[in-house]
Write a structure and sequence with these properties.
With 138 residues, the chain is mostly helical. The protein is 72% helix and 0% strand. It contains four helices and no strands. It is flat. The relative contact order is 0.16.
């Protein structure tokens, strides 16, 4: 029996928000991220435990993105988001004068690629009617 789930725009936004949390919790130019916290005087067990949780999130998102989009698709998704940023720069809506702004922009692009990777199987199924499955060889 196949259980059908409805994939909507809200589903994509939810995946995008989770990918934003993952990326920005790991590193961002502010002082509120795991990388900055790693160098603080906090007890090491908290750093290791939170690092493992982040690593689990990264493995889930990267594996889903890679399995769903593949190498070429991941490259195309990154290029798409990069061109969107380029358009914003051309239109004068975004200036990359500051290094921290560049880091924020790259992190938004990375979050977008991860969200597309997490969502692509659902989008493909809605467009073509085909299901993506993981093949397990035994």
């Amino acid at each position: 029996m196949v259980i059908q789930s409805k994939f909507t725009f809200v589903s994509f936004i939810l995946r995008y928000l989770i990918s934003l949390i993952l990326v920005f919790a790991t590193y961002n130019p502010s002082e509120y991220c795991w990388v900055q916290w790693l160098y603080s005087d906090t007890v090491m067990v908290y750093k290791v435990a939170s690092g493992i949780v982040l690593l689990i999130g990264w493995v889930m998102f990267l594996r889903a993105t890679w399995n769903s989009l593949g190498a070429f698709g991941t490259l195309l998704a990154a290029a798409f988001f990069a061109v969107m940023i380029w358009l914003l720069i051309e239109w004068g809506l975004l200036a990359l004068d500051n290094t921290s702004i560049k880091v924020w922009v790259v992190e938004f692009i990375l979050s977008g690629v991860l969200a597309v990777g997490m969502s692509w199987s659902h989008v493909r199924r809605r467009i073509s009617g085909q299901y993506d499955t993981d093949e397990i060889e035994g």
